[in-house]
Amino acid sequence: MNRIYLDHAATSPVHPKSAEKLAEVLTTVYGNPSSIHGTGREARKLLDESREVLAKSIGADVNDIILTSGGTEADNLAIFGTAYGRKDEGKHIITSEIEHHAVLNSCKKLEKEGYEVTYLPVDQAGKVSIDDFKAALRPDTILVTIMYGNNEIGTIQPINEIGDLLADHPATFHTDAVQAYGIVPLDVKKLNVDLLSVSSHKVNGPKGIGFLFQKPKTLLYTQLIGGEQERKRRAGTENVPAAAAFAEAVKIAQDSLEEKRERYERFRKIFIDVLDESGIDYHVNGGVQPYLPHILNISFKGTDVESFLVNLDLEGVSASSGSACTAGSIDPSHVLIAMYGKEARELRDSIRFSFGYGLTEEDVRKSAESTVKIVKRLVK
For this structure, is 107 an active site residue? Predict the structure, then answer.
């Protein structure tokens, strides 16, 4: 059976060119980039070149990039680094109810340590209200952390507007852009953010590496203690092969942003057209512009998410019920709870399909047809 992978929001296949770069550097560039001899300088040169690619991709300067082990560490560094670094200025944090668990669980930990966190609600499109944000903002707010685009429903938040509102406020502004990076254009200067998190494995790069953008003069308390790597901001010998492979994937992603947007919009249309032609009962969760075009979260009335996913798997289609970090237990989506309430049927009948590298229009059509077949079988 040729499987069709529709779970790119969970992780993406490594692009062949990125894999080639990883293997090449892993076997030829083995020096420690902190060493001053020729072997170390070779590694440093490659690391610096990779960092330049990453910085350019978000309109940042090369020294603004802190390499991390992935999006979770980048989020943790942003949140704990800000909270601990600015605790004498205040202990109020603003986030949203639909953040990734790397953000939500970090905030919950801080609450246990005496910090106060405001969790902004969202509407049924999964979007935070600017009015709610204005009402929550206080003189003692030290951190605002709002994701750019949601990983379950694809809704894009009003980051520009929030950034403008914070221009004259001392709070540090962080956005988790893990799901949006490589899908939509991002410019940290236009967004007016102080911190921005990114992960390699969402853009067809290797797992285990990401970065945190840190705007100059943004206070950040170091979390990993050791050497003076990453300009004394994140200790530990840098993963040069992964950084080079990450940069290779980023080059490819940045060169194809518009082409991908158009392709994913075609995929969405094909999928939805098949559903419409079948006459089954469904609705899209979120799906209100602006959204991330590669994420399509659909509620199928009368179905059960667990049996639906099993049936999709038997049909050779890989999809999910939401975030890969919690999908193992098929717990109700905190995103859908925030949108619809704890008793909503969407918690039990929603599937996330997400598009990416290697997918064809025929793959999408076949997946939609399999979906229709499963719905008709499950709905009695």
Answer: no
Give the Å distances, CA to CA, from 50 to 21, 56, 57, 245, 267: 11, 10, 11, 8, 32
**Domain-ending residue, one of 236, 255, 274:** 255
The residue among 196, 230, 255 that closes a domain is: 255
| pLDDT tens track for 9-28 | 999 999 999 999 999 999 99
| Residue tagged active-site, from 62, 310, 325, 379 | 325
Quote the domain boundaries for residue 327.
4-12+256-378
For residue 143, which amino acid is it? Answer: L
Amino acid of residue 250: V
Q: Is the pLDDT of residue 336 over 60?
A: yes
Chain segment 164-180, per-residue pLDDT in tens: 999 999 999 999 999 99
Q: What share of the chain is helix, strand, coil (3-state, %, to 5)?
A: 45, 15, 40
- pTM, rounded to two decimals: 0.96
Bridge-based pairing of strands 141-145 and 172-176 is: parallel
